[in-house]
Specification:
This protein is an alpha+beta fold. Helices cover 52% and strands 23% of the residues. Strands 1, 2, 3, 4, 5, 6 and 7 form a seven-stranded mixed beta sheet that branches. The protein is globular, with a radius of gyration of 30 Å.
Amino acid sequence: MRNKSLRDRWASYRRAKTNERLRKAVLGEVIERLVQESLPSIRRVGGYRKQLLAPIENAFAYMEKLVGAIPGPVSLTAGAWDKDPLIHALFVGPHEIRSILEDSSEVNDFFRKTGAAAARVLLTTTQKERAVFGTTIEGEIIRRDVPKTALEFYDHRVVAPAATGEESLRELVHRGLTVVATHTLETITEAHSLREELISQRQLLGVKLKIKEVQDHGMRGFMAGGRRTDPGGSGTPQLLAEIDQLLQEMGPNVASPEGILREMKAVLNNPGSALTGKPLRLCLDGMGYRLNDEGNEGGSWIDLAELEVPGRVKRVGVLATIPAGECPRA
């Protein structure tokens, strides 16, 4: 019995080690793809893979959870427009669905290259609320000029086509990580620009301070006993000290490979700073007006995900399946 227990423990240990190797191999592939596409200069830093392993694993788990919470898949076809309340709400009519699928080069290219019968995609759109006045029927009473909230959806995008749900999840997770990498580059660019601006401002203030000191020294020598004035004018020394403090906090070489790697690790450890997702549940009537969340008879509920790059872009999305026959250019 004891020997069997030891064999079981040894087998479990071997499986765990194998799974660990597979996990590191997958994460290693993710790191290389992300670095190659977004931040190749990181390769100049020794041991960058090892440094990125834990942050990538953290961000990978975050993106898997975010993508896994996106509702769907729904059938994205012209024929679904008068059958599916969500498709009906997102599009003006079947013609809009046909137009979007016809214009989607990514989806049409996918079908041409793979010959797949269907594609799993992410459908995203921008949502806008508009206050309007409409008519409401309450029993036998018709009420006019009733305040209503109309929902409008525009700028539809169909992205990340894949043959299966598993492939779709993998591709969307990678695209989420690419958003993180892009956010890192934007942060570094902004920090680098700010640092250059601070250095330039410090140099200018240093020149002004020197001129003021020379002027005051000459005035005292000529006037013989003139009252000493503040050589900094209006707080120049204090401003210089504040700039020096900011530069010290930012550190040198923010755009160097080491600086990029440092910022990349920070963002990967906090991926929510680059991309967030949350469920969005709406109740709509047949005219597309938003109803209150409770006590609405005859309304239809639709489920979406609200995806946001904080302070930059906010869109709503749903997973969808597109049959190849819906794309005439495929």
